[in-house]
Amino acid sequence: MRATLIAICVLGAGLARAGEPTATEPAPGAVAQALAAADDTARAADAAIGDAALALHEACGRAYLEIAAGSPRLPNVDELLINAARCFARGGSAGAAIALGERLVAEHPQSRLAAATLAQLGALHAALGQYAQAADALGRFTDRYPAEADAPDALWNLIAYRAALGDAAGADRAAALFVRRYAGKRLSAAALVRVDLAQRQAARGEVAAALVTYAGLLKDGRLEPALRAQVLAAQGELAWQRACPRPTIAGLCVRTTPAGLVPVPRRAADATAARASFRAVLHGVDPSDPSVVASVARAQVHLAEEKIEATLALAPMPNLAFGSDHQPTPASLKATLAWLTAWQRSIADADRAITDAVGARHPASAVAVAARAAVFYDQLATTLAAAPTPTAIRGQPAEQAYRDGLAEHAAPLRERGRQAGALCLQQAGELGIVTDDVAVCAALMARVEPRWALAERRSPAAPTTIDTMLAPALPEPPPAP
């Protein structure tokens, strides 16, 4: 009700415009006296608190407005209007303040106060959640007064409001204007605007455009180390994702088959570019520096994906052929041992990459690492469990012994995958996040947990950190020749 009455007051006062004399204008002395009284009320309002402050701010707004209405030909009417607007804004009457601000801009476009008024209009509209109107006011401000000290901040906010309104083209235009105007004077701010632009392009699915924007930033060569690491990580991540021709599972470029997960080759050009970006992130930075931890973690996670995919690509295990003497043939035994050696070395490489990713110590990335580890170790167990039974021992007592031996080696891998899945869900719950990685972990746990319920009751408690989970599950591979 109070705001409505103030708005009516403002509209009524607006009937007397600048240059339109009233029937009886007060004498100069009376105007000076009224102005002094209004100033006193404004100072009292600033010193007061609570409801008293609100009432005094409303009173000073009315006082300035009455002077402007009674003496429209005063040379400082614009000052009276902005003073009234400020009083009403501080008194909680944003609508009245906005109306007076728009009146000042419309009636006094050449006023030295017009620029500040437009900026304040943007802030008032934003405070009311009126982002379209806020963007309009800031757009007028930045168009008309680009040299004002507040213009860069106003343009920065304009980008955010346009993006929040879903006006992608408007946000992109504002971002381009910011870079064009202020790249030389506000290098860091201009770089952040370009990063924001690339992120919005990527979110819209414009991956090629986002990569061009990131490449332009890196080519500029004047980025602070932390921002450079962020750009490199984001650039590499986009290229790495684009390299996979199908949707990933826990970040891994794989497809599902009855025998388990089968890697799908990534596009070479994008994969190579992504690896170069990830390695550039890690080059010459202190991974413990808080400003680069997130970027280092992102790079390490994707480098771990590369090693995991390389290991999974070695499946399936070759068939071991037996001769007439019921012993493995030399050629088959040699091929099988060579496969096992390569497989173990590849597992060791992936283990190290996972450990490196864990070492980045970034909470959100820890969930991603645990998800990839869960899928990885569970699939390793599946590879062993799905190994073909040699034809010569099928249906023989040796077949069961052979299958039992495979199961004995598969069990610790399956358990490691279960522990990683449990850790993934635990950390996601602590962080309150729900992602595709978390969904993968939940699906894996729903499948394997019943199978391991009895074993878990008989064994010590599962580890609570991924560091303790990474204990060797297979013998160390033989040294490389």
Secondary-structure content class: mainly alpha
Average of pLDDT: 84
Major β-sheet annotation: 2 strands, antiparallel
* Rg, nearest Å: 34 Å
Can you tell me about this structure?
The chain is mostly helical and 481 residues long. The chain is 70% helix and 2% strand. A hairpin with a 2-residue loop joins strand 1 (254-257) and strand 2.
Can you summarize this structure?
The chain is mainly α. It is 70% helix and 2% strand.
Secondary-structure map with pairings?
Layout (H helix, E strand, L loop, with lengths): L1 H12 L14 H20 L2 H21 L6 H14 L3 H14 L6 H14 L3 H14 L6 H14 L3 H15 L4 H17 L3 H14 L4 H19 L10 E4 L2 E4 L4 H15 L10 H20 L17 H30 L3 H23 L11 H35 L4 H23 L7 H4 L12
Antiparallel strand pairs: 1-2
Helix pairs in contact: 1-3, 1-5, 2-3, 3-4, 4-5, 5-6, 6-7, 7-8, 8-9, 9-10, 10-11, 11-12, 12-13, 12-14, 13-14, 14-15, 14-16, 16-17, 16-18, 17-18
